Amino acid sequence: MTLRLEAINTGYGQVQILYDLSLEARPGEVLCLLGRNGAGKTTTLKAIMGLLPLRSGSITLDGQSLSDLPAHQVPGQGVAYVPQGRRLFTELTVAENIEIGLMTRGKSHRTRDRVLSMFPRLQDRLDQPAETLSGGEQQMLATARALCLEPSVLLLDEPTEGLQPSMIALIADTVRAMRTEGQAVILVEQRIDSVLALADRVAFIENGRGREVMDTADLRDDPSLVRKYVGI
After folding, report:
1. Which one-letter DSSP state was computed for residue 92?
2. By Cβ atoms counted within 10 A, which residue in 5, 36, 173, 180 is the most buried?
3. pLDDT tens per residue across span 93-123
4. 213: left (phi over 0), alpha (psi -120 to 50) or beta
């Protein structure tokens, strides 16, 4: 399913953050949002999830409107979100957090078993409270909970932040698996090496406005846009 943002405007209270932003995330593709801190990348993900009301514009998934839905109904349409900071139910166990993901779209334990096979370390910690997990394990759990929706679109906000290399590699493998299964992935990531290794296309955002969108292969050949919009 293709996710489209068409000329969306939104912000926080009286402060506008996004200005006529348009994007398209296609099935079987990893689209990375790049820009400086405060450019509007996380705001874009929150807008997709209905956490911020649109002032104008539209967000659709395969032609069906998401922007008309209340936030709690968006995951039910097959859009999963792993926010920066993970946002787990920390007092609940690993198993209970996963069960919440399954309940969102009525998925069975077959889905649970498939997701846990991707994160075998969680299998050994099912009865453990989420707050007692390491940072990397919490990121695994947040990602696993999102995948329990069997989403058509997966949104990941800074998934490798603060993780050791082995955990970063696991998250990267998960993203590749989602792409292979035909899901659209929108990734916010500041690690340029990870972006170049994972993304199919890169969309630059500057001061809440969409700028160039280009294939990652072209960005490797000409990294000047990274310096222009990210500053590194």
Report:
1. S
2. 5
3. 999 999 999 999 999 889 999 999 999 899 9
4. beta
**pTM summary value:** 0.92
Q: Which residues contact 111 (CB under 8 A, 6 or more apart)?
A: 102, 148, 150
Domain range 3-78+151-229, its CATH number among 3.10.310.10, 3.30.1360.140, 3.40.50.300, 1.20.120.140: 3.40.50.300
Distance CA 147, CA 97 (A): 12
How do the domains of the chain map onto residue ranges? Answer: 3-78+151-229, 88-150
In angstroms, rounded to a whole number, what is the distance separating the alpha carbons of residues 85 and 96?
Answer: 19
3-class secondary-structure state, position 11: strand
Cα torsion for 218, 170, 152, 150, to the nearest 10°? 170
What pLDDT, in 10s, does the model give residues 64-93? 999 999 999 999 999 999 998 778 998 999
Residues linked to residue 31 through DSSP beta bridges, in sequence order: 186, 201
Shortest CA distance to 57 belongs to which of 2, 3, 4?
4
Contact criterion met (CB below 8 Å) for 56 and 11: no
- Tally helices (H) and strands (E) across the chain: 9, 10
